[in-house]
Specification:
Elements lengths: L21 H13 L12 E11 L12 E8 L10 E2 L2 E3 L6 H13 L8 E4 L3 E2 L4 E9 L13 E8 L10 E3 L8 E6 L4 E4 L2 H13 L18
Parallel strand pairs: 1-7
Antiparallel strand pairs: 1-2, 1-4, 2-3, 2-8, 5-7, 6-7, 9-10, 10-11
Length: about 230
């Protein structure tokens, strides 16, 4: 059962028991439409990239939730990839010269996990996020229909997780801490479902998705840093 809370905008707040339904889809879409997204101009020596924060339905009951709960897709990168092998990541990659960020995110979704969607499935976009490894990431929020089929590419993806959206709202999440190598705080998200943490930059993008799309708060995340091993 789901209750509702009031927000300043008069729209219902999404509570912990988030079901994959039209009400959730519309609430996310409206919050993203209201958000004053920050898009950096080209340049600054950064390569453009896009990732897909893809909302899907969970297909089974387990200790983390029920079938029919809303979730997001998270991948573990294949162990033999040249860059960031074995790391947890959102589907995504470089933006080609003739692409928009939206087109690149959808292309990467299909190339990595065989999920073929089009721009009708895009709900909105979050802030560009600059990484230590030289990329400017555009996070695109996508809604996949109930019957969307996936076929992960083993050359790129070792595993696909359907992480319940409720995991983003864990009381101990996010974890924010300092490191001697940076004067910026580092962010990570504890995620028992993957036996550890989701680290930045992915953690920063998912935290902003939580704040903007699930809570209706215009939170910025560019100031959050990444662990040193992710700087390369």
């Amino acid at each position: 059962m789901r209750a509702a809370l009031s927000t300043a905008a008069g729209r219902p707040a999404i509570l912990a028991a988030m079901r994959f339904d039209d009400e959730l889809r519309e609430a996310i879409r409206l919050r993203l439409a209201d958000f004053d997204m920050s898009c950096r101009p080209e340049g600054h020596g950064l390569k453009r990239a896009a990732v897909a924060i893809t909302v899907v339905t969970r297909d089974e009951d387990d200790a983390y939730g029920r079938a029919g709960d809303a979730a997001f897709l998270l991948t573990r990168r294949a162990p033999k990839l040249r860059a960031h092998a074995g790391q947890l990541a959102l589907p995504g990659g470089r933006i080609d010269a003739d692409e928009t960020p939206q087109q690149a995110a959808l292309r990467e979704l299909e190339e990595e996990i065989g999920l073929g969607l089009d721009e009708r499935h895009i709900l909105g976009r979050l802030d560009d996020y600059p990484t230590r490894s030289g990329y400017l990431i555009a996070p695109i929020v996508v809604w996949a229909p109930h019957d969307a089929a996936m076929a992960p590419n083993p050359a790129e993806v070792a595993h696909v997780y359907r992480i319940p959206l409720a995991e983003l709202r864990r009381p101990e999440s996010p974890e924010i801490f300092s490191i001697p190598e940076s004067d910026r705080p580092v962010i990570r998200l504890p995620t028992p479902m993957v036996n550890g943490h989701i680290n930045a930059p992915t953690a920063a993008l998912l935290y902003q998705f939580r704040e903007v799309a699930l809570e209706g708060r215009a939170t910025r995340v560019e100031h959050f840093d990444q662990p040193v091993w992710a700087w390369r």
